[in-house]
Design brief:
Shape: globular
Radius of gyration: 22 Å
CATH architecture of one domain: 2-Layer Sandwich
Bound molecules: flavin-adenine dinucleotide
Number of helices: 14
CATH class of one domain: Alpha Beta
Mean pLDDT: 91
Strand content: 15-25%
Length: 455
């Protein structure tokens, strides 16, 4: 393929670094999907934005690389969908599940969505994030804002509520974000200050804005190992059954991996994202590491050994990362955890919004990025953001948490997948559940479940 068709492998020109001390309507920290969406929507709404990313493009992000249907509306609104569809990607038409005993079931994605190309893709994040960032940084610069890559945000500056700038003084609730400091070009680089009363934290699971809000200001814990997941991925080529550019992604509840799961997500061009994930508190109880578990499954499991017999791992692709789940916390008043204060809104992983069953976080990063931007544009009080985010995402995050807890039981997985593999009505129900939130509600109707499973 010609070099210009692989634009995501090239650097992105983001223009000159702005002058120290510049003022902005909003500052967005982090250039993943959440930050790109927030910065793009703010700029489209006429705001002067400073958009900062620590990495330098092209940059990788450890992920399973599946981009679900929920994301595609935003991908389209931000002007990226047509461009993305001209680049190599895997079109997802269904999901294959297997149980610890090795039963398998295929759940088709809704036909309508597949036909309209709204069902979802998988493609490497190095490619997806590049396409999204490139377009959103253009929106930012077209609206008079600035973009920095290779900028490591070091701290959030606060106004103490009395006109001073000492966050040690004044009550937490009177404190207001006033700007950030950012180090440019590595550890010995210059530290610059930029000012804004509206800051969006989109820096992922270790976001410096989330830390300033959750840990430093409110002295609450950011990491809760019962709601954080460890994830490990490798890219492989030549895996049998994974060489087409459309078809199924695969989720396997392998005996040696439950209470986690093993996935195979083709990303087109004959490459597959192969990975494993497990809740960290459950991982603490296991002696094995994710990397070793994955090696064992690939080499020895009867369902995969033969499929990997001619396969090769892409050198340098083995990497681990964390997923902050959006499952409801028992002791927290604010769910899933605090994500706003005067002048700060957190989005995506910085707000701990990853789906606790599927591990999907890109969709919720885009949804929260749009919401945070809209709240700033419409000058909605910051505390409304916390409530709106949970009322939009809370119901499905709660459902997914229940599913995750059920999927820790091997006997239940064996029973359910065994039944589903023989009952088309169950497969259709699972398709419906992927398509609609209302259908997910039926999961909580004991009579409905009893009827569907037993008869
Ligand atoms: C192993 C694994 C598999 C996954 N599989 C899937 C999947 O298949 N589908 C799915 O939808 N989701 C998946 N996820 C979750 C998904 O990757 C995240 O939810 C998603 O990337 C969140 O987007 P974000 O923009 O909030 O954060 P990120 O994508 O993490 O982006 C944060 C950005 O902030 C930047 N940054 C960090 N610190 C600073 C700083 N100090 N200054 C400036 N910038 C900073 C980072 O460089 C990064 O670019 C997976 C995650 C893992 C770990």
């Amino acid at each position: 393929m010609a070099n210009d068709a692989r634009s995501w492998e090239l650097p992105i020109d983001t223009g000159a670094i702005p002058k120290n001390g510049a003022d902005y309507d909003a500052i967005v920290v982090g250039g993943g999907p959440g930050g790109s969406a927030a910065a793009g929507y703010l700029a489209k709404g006429g705001k002067k934005v400073l958009f900062i990313e620590k990495g330098v493009w092209p940059r990788d992000k450890v992920c399973g690389d599946a981009v679900g249907g929920k994301s595609l509306g935003h991908v389209k609104d931000l002007g990226v969908k047509d461009k993305l569809e001209k680049t190599p990607h895997f079109r997802v038409t269904g999901i294959k599940f297997s149980s610890p005993k090795g039963h398998t079931v295929r759940v088709a994605l809704p036909e309508d969505d597949v036909e309209k190309m709204e069902a979802g893709y998988s493609l490497p994040r190095i490619q997806f994030d590049h396409l999204l960032f490139e377009e959103c940084q253009k929106h930012v610069r077209d609206a008079g804002g600035h973009v920095i890559q290779g900028g490591d945000v070091k701290s959030v500056l606060f106004d103490d509520g009395s006109g001073g700038s000492d966050p040690g003084k004044g009550s937490k609730d009177a404190r207001h974000a006033a700007g950030i400091t950012v180090q440019i070009g590595g550890k010995k680089g210059e530290v610059l200050t930029f000012n804004s009363k509206e800051i969006i934290g989109a820096g992922g699971y270790r976001c410096p804005v989330a830390k300033a809000l959750v840990e430093d200001t409110y002295e609450e814990a950011m990491v809760d190992r019962t709601h954080y997941c460890g994830g490990y991925r490798e890219y492989w080529s030549n895996v049998k059954g994974c060489t087409d550019n459309s078809g199924d992604i695969e989720i396997h509840f392998v005996d040696s991996v439950v209470p986690g799961y093993f996935w195979l997500f083709p990303v087109s061009e004959g490459v597959v994202n192969v990975g494993i994930g497990m809740v960290m508190s459950l991982m603490d109880k296991q002696k094995k590491k994710l990397k070793a578990m994955q090696k064992d499954v690939i080499a020895n499991h009867p369902l995969f050994k033969e499929r990997f017999s001619d396969a090769e791992m892409v050198p340098g692709s083995a990497k681990g990362w964390q997923l902050p789940f959006g499952s409801p916390r028992k002791k927290e008043k604010l769910q899933p955890r605090r994500n706003t204060m005067n002048g700060i809104r957190l989005v995506g992983d910085a707000a701990s919004l990853v789906d606790p069953f599927s591990g999907e976080g890109v969709g919720n990063a885009l949804v929260s990025g749009e919401m945070a931007a809209r709240h700033i544009i419409e000058q909605i009080p910051h505390n409304v953001y916390q409530d709106e985010l949970w009322s939009v995402l809370g119901p499905e995050l709660k459902n997914s948490f229940n599913m995750q807890k059920l999927s820790r039981r091997k006997w239940l997985l064996n029973w359910f997948v065994g039944k589903a593999s023989k009952k088309p009505v169950l497969q259709e129900m699972m398709t419906e559940m992927i398509a609609s939130k209302e259908a997910q509600e039926s999961l909580h109707s004991p009579w409905f479940m009893f009827k569907t499973l037993m008869f």
